[in-house]
């Protein structure tokens, strides 16, 4: 998900940076681009690490910037299709929840919360199961799987699902684990009893 990458691009240094050393000016400019989506890499820029090389500056008649072709190391956030991720619910709307994973927000559609049917509680901005009364709200930590990755207007769009075993709100996962553990223990106990009955015969 997070990776150290080598990026090459033309960095536009603005006039307000001209008084600094060129490497410092480029570093300042790149730092302002944190959160930028690189469509060719399918990744978001998280943090500048270091400059590798800087080419000669070129001017453009359309603006006052000087453009330097720069190669640099940076920390990027690159999600993968089918990757299991953890995140925090940061907002809820009638159509689904927004979950913060890494440097981006992913959409968890209401139909992908669970196999159960959920309804949106607009007053409390939460989703409530019509069957088990489970609640999903802002601040909850969840585990989900990435099912779609796309870009729109220079922004990364991610779709996630929790409709798979051992995905969902962490509290629900722990309950499912305890249930599975108890169910396994009961089956083992039943098997051992049957074995003893067979041995007596």
UniProtKB/TrEMBL annotation:
It comes from the Archaea. PROSITE patterns: S1 (PS50126). GO terms for cellular component: DNA-directed RNA polymerase complex. Pfam families: S1. GO terms for biological process: DNA-templated transcription initiation. Residues 82-163 form the S1 motif domain. GO terms for molecular function: DNA binding; DNA-directed RNA polymerase activity. Keywords: DNA-directed RNA polymerase, Transcription. SMART domains: S1. PANTHER family: DNA-DIRECTED RNA POLYMERASE II SUBUNIT RPB7 (PTHR12709:SF4), DNA-DIRECTED RNA POLYMERASE II, III (PTHR12709). NCBIfam families: PRK08563.1, rpoE. This is DNA-directed RNA polymerase. The lineage of its organism: Archaea, Candidatus Huberarchaeota, Candidatus Huberarchaeia, Candidatus Huberarchaeales, Candidatus Huberarchaeaceae.
